[in-house]
Write a structure and sequence with these properties.
The structure is a homodimer of 418-residue chains. Chain A has 15 helices and 16 strands. Chain A is an alpha/beta fold. Chain A has 3 domains: 71 residues, Orthogonal Bundle (Arc Repressor Mutant, subunit A); 142 residues, 2-Layer Sandwich (Nucleotidyltransferase, domain 5); 159 residues, Nucleotidyltransferase, domain 5. At the A-B interface, helix 1, helix 5, strand 11, helix 6 and strand 13 of A face helix 1, strand 13 and helix 10 of B. The structure holds a DNA duplex (30 and 30 nucleotides). Chains A, B: GO terms for molecular function: kinase activity.
Chain lengths: 418, 418
DNA sequence: GTTAATTAATTACTGTCGCGAACAAATCTT
DNA sequence: AAGATTTGTTCGCGACAGTAATTAATTAAC
């Protein structure tokens, strides 16, 4: 049963044609302005290396489609012919970005260019079943979507804390919501008529993804990970999640459930994890691990966990031995896991989110020392570790960016039907 | 419905032009024939989805460049106009594939299409310094390269067991050769005049890479990993190496030293590793780990290690308790590490090389059980695990494929200067 | 205040790429 | 022998990008 299993059943990827070229370049122009903000024709031409005429045509299409606007140049200052700038139209494409939290769900309407247009928040009904909760979510989204049907593109991006299959947004497990095996992606798509342009279709696209993956996207696009070639994003509060962006693509969100870095085994004689296994990394580095190491009892209310953690960090800052020692232990465990990940993935930057940013800011030495000891190369030993710069918004922004992706890779497909 | 299938390509910099289009498609045609063997115009047209005329032009260029030949069709049999097949010219592009082993280095001349044209083997001079050994290697390669200067493309691919920086082929550490910090890639490039087309340039391109990475390439291209979307290749004899192929690109070979999966930490109270750290995965799953678990003393000669391992496996097959238990322990450790890697990377296939193929064939249950216990999804729990189908040749083939890459992605650049 | 220099956008022209339709070729079927 | 079937080639078309000349708008220099 080994060799030469039939034929390579996988079809060769279709070869690109001139139409693909146009699609690609149209997307590149839009993406550039979306990511880097307003800029002139000349700047776009320079950045993309295209011919001037080409850029002109592409910009014209995007303006005509309502995604970009041409504005008169602000106060020339430089000499030479002043050049009008092109900027995104925030209402030209909007994403309903959703963050599913324990108490309720937060909704942000994010426009093209990354501008947050509005925010809302609704509590869960504690008595509601999973089905009812999802139905409520759909209802709220429908309401928000209906208010914005003028935009040529509208999408929904949901950040879900838990184990989510990127391919179709199937939620295998969302511990803090108590959800298990919920086909959230399909339910939202149906409820909002994703794809159905005319009849009842409120949005073009729905994505549901792991919040750590989306945090990685956010940091890569508009945060501390910008410009990295291979970014490792590690987030922790309760549990540890992570996302890997490799040369611009998210490792994990495409197919299965990759990126569950919190559950790599680091100690066969360790603590039992929520997932049922023993010795998962997250049992040694998440917030409860810190409390355990500090001898602080687990607060009964999940809501007060953050406060207890802040307390331990404060105590450590103040020099109380028990807290200092706890921080040292957890920081070391953080370093050990990071070292493994560096061996496996070779990131050129690491971004820490959640309480890890605070932990590392307080006590970088134990973490760095492990990397120094275990790294095989200067690159590995000295990987830059940065705090996440999008702490509060990471999931939102990532969800928005991710949901916007279809538009950015093929604006024409969205504009054509109009 | 089918939303969620976005393939995020978050890059922006280089915009493709029509020239890139042509380059791309020319490469696709060559790659297709190289990988899947001789085929007709019609088949190529179908596989690539290009217009018939386009394929005709591209094939014409490749034939004119001496990379492909047109052959009369074999026995029509079917009705319709018979179609000549196009096949690779093995001598049209050759790679000098090198495997650096303990006793000496092996050299295979591999032609386009993956055909091995010749093999050679030279022992190291035990008294030689590292510099002298490299000089010898260069000399042998020069000799082999000079014999084949007729080919439009010639390259060198070196598989090196150790820690190798993919970017430039810098060998940080090659334990079995006793090499440390050798700029092998640069030395070979200089010695063979890589790139210098006219004056003394014998080859176009030189790559040096980790043998596990190259094994992964070989298995992905022409072995048990063919067709996988995300392939995890794990190899072990002494030490554990690994390679990850994600959507057709090697995760480690591009930049730093990634892919050193043998050195992820699995037990803080474990055994000290050669690398100086404690509890590396390879201390629990490589050949010496098996011997240790079986209570067999480490043979003094590295050469007799394989024999000792085979003996333990044989004993286990025969049901001797100590050997059976040792195999169980190591298989379990294999499963633990694989489970972590599955969590992190989410491969859709795992290929085991080196003695791990035999170990798993003998005792798959403990490994599979760990994956079953720890996996979060059906995909993760049931990842196919296959033995490498290119056991002996993996490094060779991978080196050849990898060194051929520049030709396959841009045949015109090679053909133009002629 | 006029002129030169500088930078930018538009326009027209040219060459290339891939597509599709029509036609030609080679074999099989009836 | 005529039609059917599949394949390869040719040629016109549209789309795209590159180049160069022209026009436009501003600053700097005299």
């Amino acid at each position: 049963m080994a060799s030469q299993s039939s034929r390579p059943a996988l079809k060769s990827s279709p070869a690109p044609t001139t139409a693909d070229l146009r699609r690609d370049n149209l997307g590149r122009v839009l993406r550039l302005v979306h990511e880097d903000g307003a800029m002139t024709r000349a700047a776009i031409t320079e950045r993309l290396g295209l011919a001037r005429g080409t850029v002109g045509v592409l910009l014209d299409m995007l303006v005509r489609g309502g995604l970009l606007v041409e504005r008169s140049p602000e106060l020339p200052g430089t000499r030479g012919r002043p050049s009008p700038v092109f900027d995104t139209v925030p209402t030209g494409a909007t994403v309903l970005a959703v963050d599913l939290a324990v108490e309720g769900f937060r909704l942000a309407v994010v426009g093209l260019g990354g501008r947050v247009l509005s925010r809302h928040e609704w509590p869960w009904d504690p008595a509601a079943s999973t089905e009812q909760s999802v139905a409520t979510l759909v209802e709220r989204l429908r309401g928000a979507a209906r208010r914005r049907t003028a935009a040529p593109y509208q999408a929904v991006g949901v950040a879900c804390w838990g184990i989510v299959r990127g391919r179709d947004g199937f939620v295998h497990l969302a511990p803090n919501l108590g959800w298990r095996d919920v086909a959230l992606g399909a339910l939202l798509s149906d409820g909002l008529g994703a794809g159905r342009a005319g009849a009842g279709g409120l949005v073009q696209h729905v994505v549901v993804a792991n919040d750590a993956d989306l945090g990685a996207v956010a940091e890569y696009r508009r945060g501390a990970g910008a410009g990295a070639r291979r970014l490792l994003y590690v987030h922790s509060d309760v549990g540890v999640g992570g996302g890997i962006v490799h040369e611009g693509t998210v490792l994990g969100a495409s197919g299965g459930y990759a990126g569950e870095i919190g559950h790599m085994t680091v100690d066969p004689r360790g603590v039992r994890c929520r997932c049922g296994a023993v010795g998962c990394w997250e049992t040694e580095v998440d917030e409860r691990a810190l409390l355990r190491a500090a001898g602080v009892p687990d607060p009964p209310e999940p809501a007060s966990l953050a406060g207890a953690v802040a307390g331990v960090l404060e105590d450590a800052r103040a020099g109380r031995p028990a807290a200092v020692e706890a921080v040292r232990i957890v920081s070391t465990a953080l370093g050990t896991g990071l070292a493994s990940l560096v061996h496996i993935l070779g990131p050129d930057r690491i971004v820490l989110g959640g309480y890890l940013a605070d932990l590392y800011a307080l006590s970088p030495v134990p973490t760095r020392r492990v990397l120094q000891e275990r790294g095989f190369s200067a690159e590995a030993r000295d990987v830059p570790i940065l705090p996440a710069s999008r702490r509060a918004d990471a999931s939102f922004l990532g969800a928005a960016e991710y949901a916007l992706e279809p538009l950015l890779s093929d604006p024409a497909a969205v504009l054509r039907p109009r």
